[in-house]
Amino acid sequence: MRRRNYVTLMDPIQEMYGNVMGCLLFIPPLIADIFWFAAVLASLGATMKVILDIQGYVAIIISACTVIFYTLLGGLYSVAYTDVVQLIFISLSLWICIPFAIMNPATENIFHTASYNISQTPWTGKI
């Protein structure tokens, strides 16, 4: 691909099958990227909505502007570094949650006895 100076993965397909087929085969990845980006913004907006107590659409707009801003400033490197930072935060926060999950009364029978009693009544707490 480098020897032929292809820019995208669609370039060899377009070269082999023509422009019309290349355009038709480009539609599914385009739709998938649009839905993926919408899902990421919606989940980030929902998180910001809970943490900052703001409207959902405002949180999504702020998230989109932030992503566009740091991508324009740093390019692909900023996106890669953001992913690394997210993985670090996810790993740390999951390890921080473990003691709270173990000490929760709802998990007492699971962690403190050798066998789990299936007939136990389910825990229904309050949110």
Automatic annotation (TrEMBL):
<keyword id="KW-0915">Sodium</keyword>
<keyword id="KW-0813">Transport</keyword>
<comment type="similarity">
    <text>Belongs to the sodium:solute symporter (SSF) (TC 2.A.21) family.</text>
</comment>
<dbReference type="InterPro" id="IPR038377">
    <property type="entry name" value="Na/Glc_symporter_sf"/>
</dbReference>
<feature type="transmembrane region" description="Helical">
    <location>
        <begin position="84"/>
        <end position="102"/>
    </location>
</feature>
<keyword id="KW-0406">Ion transport</keyword>
<dbReference type="GO" id="GO:0005307">
    <property type="term" value="F:choline:sodium symporter activity"/>
</dbReference>
<keyword id="KW-1133">Transmembrane helix</keyword>
<dbReference type="GO" id="GO:0005886">
    <property type="term" value="C:plasma membrane"/>
</dbReference>
<keyword id="KW-0325">Glycoprotein</keyword>
<keyword id="KW-0472">Membrane</keyword>
<keyword id="KW-0812">Transmembrane</keyword>
<keyword id="KW-0769">Symport</keyword>
<protein>
    <submittedName>
        <fullName>High-affinity choline transporter 1-like</fullName>
    </submittedName>
</protein>
<feature type="transmembrane region" description="Helical">
    <location>
        <begin position="20"/>
        <end position="42"/>
    </location>
</feature>
<dbReference type="Pfam" id="PF00474">
    <property type="entry name" value="SSF"/>
</dbReference>
<feature type="transmembrane region" description="Helical">
    <location>
        <begin position="54"/>
        <end position="77"/>
    </location>
</feature>
<keyword id="KW-0530">Neurotransmitter biosynthesis</keyword>
<dbReference type="InterPro" id="IPR052244">
    <property type="entry name" value="Choline_transporter"/>
</dbReference>
<keyword id="KW-0739">Sodium transport</keyword>
<dbReference type="InterPro" id="IPR001734">
    <property type="entry name" value="Na/solute_symporter"/>
</dbReference>
<dbReference type="GO" id="GO:0008292">
    <property type="term" value="P:acetylcholine biosynthetic process"/>
</dbReference>
